[in-house]
Amino acid sequence: MKNRKQAYHIETEKGLINDPNGLSYFKGKYYVFFQWNPNTTDHSYKVWGKTTSQDLIHWSEPIIALQASEAYDKDGTYSGSAVSDGETLSLYYTGNVKREGVRYPEQCLAQSKDGVHFKKYGSVLSLPDDYTGHFRDPKVTKEDVWKMIIGGQNKKTGRGNIIQYTSIDGTSFKFNKIIGISKQYEMIECPDLFTLDAHEVLIYGLQSRNNDTDECLDAHAVYLIDTLSDLDKGMHMDEGYDFYAPQTFVDAQGRRIMLAWMSRFSDAQEVEFAKDGHIHCLTMPRELSVKKGKLIQLPVREMYELCHEIPYTNHMKIQRQAMIEISPLEHISFSINKELSIHFNEGISIERYDWAEQKYQKKSWPIKINHMEIWLDTSSVEIFANNGEFVYSARLDPQAEDLLLASSKESQNINVYRLEI
């Protein structure tokens, strides 16, 4: 069996993980919760998994934090968020309830004083009359009042909205306003609204659904800055294949940090990875900023402490955990095994080998690249170009134990770093 186990990305030893939830900094530790089916590699059941870290690099063994155990969450503890006030960690999540195949979600609360034991307090918001059972993913913040934004499908239009609710005490929420509306997409998922560098930023997922069959057809993560009402104008957060459900939090240093689900596989791609008994992972932590009307994403600075430079020579071999830095001042192509190739010409094109279809998937962009970082783990790549303006995330199926790095011509503009985890 191939070794696809990641070295510095969050994943589990068994089952399926997806959306990161409840990202928070609480009593000296970073907390990452996530959607998890610990039993099998499908979406048939969901609990909240949990892992913690003191440095955003080394993560504890994932354990279950919230089980589907009560009448209001009996069919799954679905996505949500966390609020830390220093003494209490409050988790808000969607309790999935199905009656005769119809969803009746409840937005629920659980709290902890130690980050280990969580007490459930039940529903804080029931399904409003104006929305279908697609009403989920509460992102809660505490300022002068408690605010909850949530994605919902409007019954009348069959399209997605982001709605804001408020609360005095965080235990009962009332309608406040509609943040934004989609006229094109049937559902909005995983909304997150925050202020960054004096700008209002909204990130969310646009989801196409077949309302007759209740089937998800497509979904991708986007963002808006300052002008938020027209959700269809969202700009792509990531240009790769495997990025969805991003969520952010603020750490003790005031950084806005984001993680996302790093796996949007096709059914055929999932079959191969599921042979390992576990599937999917999260992105590395990224620090966000806003510059010139764009959302900038870069690896948190802790990641750079792992980098140890080694001289680059064409057709060199290196361990799979690596970072390659390219400053393309000329027309070159760069390849990593048969898994990935990058071509710098008038613009940039990236080809990722699709292990299921056994052919290359190619994307091209008419942008000039001045600088690029390629972060590689055992079975993934995250690319950050032009100081975080351009980001590309994708899973890879390892074709060899090592990485073979090759450029189309000799270049002085390539630096290679091994990552010591």
TrEMBL record:
Q: Which residues form the Glycosyl hydrolase family 32 C-terminal domain?
A: 370-401
Highest taxon listed in the record's lineage: Bacteria
Gene3D superfamilies on file? Exo-inulinase, domain 1, Glycosyl hydrolase domain, family 43
Q: Which one of the record's GO molecular function terms can you name? A: hydrolase activity
| The keyword Hydrolase appears for this protein | yes
Q: Which terms are listed as keywords in the entry?
A: Glycosidase, Hydrolase
Q: Which CDD domains match?
A: GH32_ScrB-like
InterPro entries linked to this entry: ConA-like_dom_sf (IPR013320), GH32_Enzymes (IPR051214), Glyco_hydro_32 (IPR001362), Glyco_hydro_32_C (IPR013189), Glyco_hydro_32_N (IPR013148), Glyco_hydro_beta-prop_sf (IPR023296)
Q: In the Enzyme Commission scheme, what number(s) does this protein have?
A: 3.2.1.26
Q: Which family does it belong to?
A: Belongs to the glycosyl hydrolase 32 family.
Q: What is this protein called?
A: beta-fructofuranosidase
Q: Which organism is it from?
A: Catenibacterium faecis
Taxonomy of origin reads: Bacteria, Bacillati, Bacillota, Erysipelotrichia, Erysipelotrichales
